[in-house]
Amino acid sequence: MPATHHTRSLQRASTVRRCLCALAAWCFGIALAANASAAQVELSIACRCVEGGVNGAEARWLKQYVIPEYVAAARAQGRDVAVRLREFAGSAEQMSQQLALDFATAQGADLAEFDGFQIPGFVDAGLLKPLAETAGPEADAWEGWSHIPDSAQALVRFRGKRYGVPEQTDVRMIFYRRDLFRRAGLDADHWQPRSWGDLLDAARKLKALDPKSFPLQINAGVAMGEATTMQGYLMLLAGTGEELRDDTGRWIVSSANILGVLDFYKTVYRDEQLGEARTQRLVSGRNRSFTDFQRGKSAILIESNWFYYTAIDPQGDFPIADRDAVVGWAKMPARAPGGGVRAQDFVSVSGGNSFVLNPHSKHPREAWSLLAFMNSAPALRNYQEYNEHLCVRDDVLPPRSQFLRDSGRELLPLTTIRPIDADYEKVSAEIQRMTESVIAGKLTPRAAMGEYAAAVKQIVGTDRTIAFDLRGAAP
């Protein structure tokens, strides 16, 4: 039977009621979801740190101070945030590989610990975005930038844009064992070589004391990874007055100075066996070099200041109980006085860790808020209580360590940094191969440099390289 007007009205009313109820339920569901989302903002931090293991102090600081203090501060502002630490125990190279995989697949932690030299490669691969793009204008307006010198900001800046926040830096120097120096008749308390010749002469005296020893350790080879480039090659190259690139940004692939560096390696590891070439080529070689120094099997080690306040700390992984009495430090000399970069008598190289914001973070503004909190002056002063270090902020100083204050004051004005260039990592790998071919006796310095030149031209393009005149250089 056809519907009456009254029946049709009732049907329409019923339909409207159902629609209104559905709309109300939908709106209520959105409200619930929004509230649930607001109540369940979850962030994570990835670091190469493990409580009780590698960089354990950093892990403890993040767990015991940063996370609970940030969560409490957010709650006081009406935001419910949960933060989890993702600890990573592998090598720096493995950490980089993991981050590349995470960022490429839109996975991983919201904040990740990063070495600044890796930024260009990640940017050019589309794996990293500028802070201001990911976090918004708050990133550029952060008060902390006014307390971080431009030289330190350069560690996280690429093509004029910031990609992270630097937290700490380091310097490189020579460490030596005073007890072995005394036995060799060397100045154990105030030793300061003023040339490569002085450094080699000290090693020769130590070798004469114990002909079976290998007194000098300077990183070389592929197994040592980036430590070869930083602690070894770049320290020596800076001492010749040259850097990896010229003033116009071209990569220097052939020069008398490069030959001079490779000749130094040859002297140490092949001609006079002042260092042990086998150690340089072992996967565990760097740890072995630390153990040799700890046990007095080597006497001179070129390393980051991290080595002193972390590795051989009395509670470190390679503890020396009476470290302050046994271990001294000296500045790395130029090849000859006045022969270093900027005509310096002494040189150093600096890196530094930073944190970047994952471009795929589901909560980028909150992640930036956490990153800014981590790098605030109060938070970094607290970090000093866990692990004294050279902080990039000029308003955060090491509270107790005379070593850190002295080494920072002496070496930061002398230091250089690695090129912020997308091709750096590949060039660095060729540097490691070049040094290994020399210390292994496979190639002469000149032949090794020739292979390096060819490889770098392949990486960056011939037009971005320069070869200097070798006339008068050693054969």
Give the gist of this structure.
It is built from 19 helices and 17 strands. With 475 residues, the protein is of the alpha/beta class.
Explain the layout of strands and helices.
Elements: H1 5-39, E1 41-47, H2 56-76, E2 81-87, H3 92-104, E3 111-115, H4 119-124, H5 131-135, H6 150-153, E4 157-158, E5 161-162, E6 164-169, E7 172-177, H7 178-183, H8 196-209, E8 216-217, H9 226-239, E9 251-254, H10 256-271, H11 277-281, H12 285-294, E10 300-304, H13 306-311, H14 323-326, E11 327-330, E12 332-333, E13 346-350, E14 352-357, H15 364-374, H16 377-386, E15 390-391, H17 402-411, E16 415-417, H18 424-439, H19 445-460, E17 465-467
Parallel strand pairs: 1-2, 1-3, 8-10, 9-17, 13-16
Antiparallel strand pairs: 3-14, 4-5, 6-14, 6-15, 7-10, 7-11, 12-13
Q: How much is the radius of gyration in Å?
A: 28 Å
Work out the number of β strands.
Answer: 17
- How are the strands ordered across the major sheet? 2-1-3-14-6-15
- Residue share in helix: 40-55%
Shape: globular
Based on the coordinates given, report the CATH architecture of the largest domain.
3-Layer(aba) Sandwich
Biggest sheet statistics: 6 strands, mixed
Structural class: alpha/beta
Q: β content, as a range?
A: 5-15%
Total number of domains: 2
Task: Report how far the terminal alpha carbons are from each other.
Answer: 111 Å
Mean pLDDT: 90
The name of the CATH superfamily of the largest domain reads: Periplasmic binding protein-like II
